[in-house]
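The aim of this short unit is practical: by the end, you should be able to scan a pair of folded records and say something sensible about each. We start with the first protein, listed as its amino acid sequence and then its structure tokens.
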Amino acid sequence: MGDFDAFEREAWAGRAEAYARSFGMLCAHTVPKLLDAAGVGAGVRVLDVGTGPGTAAALAVRRGAEVCAVDAEPSMVERATRAVPEADVRHGLLPGLPFADGEFDAVVANFVLNHVGHPAAALADLRRVAGPGGRVAVTIWAAPHAPGQALLGRALEAAGAARPSSIPALAAEDDFPRTEEGLAGLLTAAGLTGARCTTLRWDHVVDPDVWWSGPAAGIATIGQILHALPPGTVAEVRRHYDELSAQFRTRDGALSLPHAALLAWATTS
């Protein structure tokens, strides 16, 4: 396991509940279209990779699919098992999924490729477990970030908080353009056929304290950056966050945060 993957395992350890209460609600938005792109419906054998709190697995069950789900973080596996008892939820890493070749009709991964050190190898493993003519569908965040997604990073920057050297970045040779062309090209390079990609845009409406609670709990890279800061700097980041949030506030005091994600899908043949 490389430095990037080891960091991801440590960063997410024990944080299933905090994620579900914060960023998990944001990431749930893309799930219906992700399942549509993978053709998930009644009788379809589907694998939900990086299931988190089980959001995609739960919707797939409601559609009548036969659902397996995996996550690399044990607390996510535990939470998804409770939330979706109809699904077969297991611990599993990507790449290295604990399934035979061609075991599923559809494979989905919602905001997973941005959390693996070797995205190309991860996609190859998604393709491996999808059967002949099977569909693979994935989402990632688009770059550059939409204004709402950039809010927390802007607050860090305004407070003069630099990314600690202890937090590894994805190696240049493993990275790819976070654009429609870049993600579709990654699927094609993994041996998938007919790759297509579209941009999903929406406004995530959330309480300001709930949105802050994600990074405050150490969720994702931005949360790990925040956790590495001294308390005085964290307070300064929060002050800038409150100020910068003003442009997104609704009349009832919530935040309406524009986001953009990429949804790509393809088949095994």
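Turning to the second protein, read its sequence before its tokens, just as you did above.
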Amino acid sequence: MRDELRFDPPVGAIPVSHRGKSLALVKGLGAHALRLELEVRLPAVAQAGRVLMLETDLHAPAGTGSLLWLGSAAVTVPFEPGALERPHLQYVLPNTLVRALEERRRGSLHLALDIRAVLPQASVHPGCPDVQLRLDITESHWFQQLEGLGRSLGVEMLVPFPSPGRPGHKAADHLLEAQRRLREDDIDGALTSARHALEHIERSSGWAKPGKKPKRERNVSERWAVIRKAIEEQTTAIGPRHSGTDTPLGHTRADAETIIALTAALTHLID
């Protein structure tokens, strides 16, 4: 997608564009970096000074004409008449924003980049009107970037974010703590936080315990109560013993990820 930064003469128009496959998500701890590359063709004029400053804001459509703000970034490139510059911009995205992008996406990912440009060494410090560059990221390329972040992000994106005062809010808080501990490789701590979430679900759900009622006679809430209890039992350290010792086998990271995901699914039912 190409647009133009239009300065007053003698600089005139500076074409600016973005190549879709240059966008990349770089894995971080609790937050990730979204990097993209612009392509700027500088005009063959000598009166503009030595640098071009670009200030940017990145947005994503959020429905009803509004935009979800993703961050700001600025970059300075040398102004060499006639040169082609490819500056890189970087925006820090917490997991919540990555999840919001995925929830709003329908097919390709559509972003909008607002660009303000200034030539500080040119006469009277000329700037130009803001330009909005549309970025269209193919679904296949976006999936490739998400896969590069690892499967833990997929688990984190399942956790609901109910507003304060809603029944699922405290359970979601416990799950966010479980995810934080899992990122620190504290599997037992993650399971403890998940168990606290399951206990809150039990108190808030109103699901009746089926007792000795036959399985086929249980109603929907009684079946959910049984499922919740089974997941809670999976958070304990009880299990087969190592051969010749009294030490129980520990949970794996995959166990913890699955328990968090299952608990997150139950949280949706009580909110």
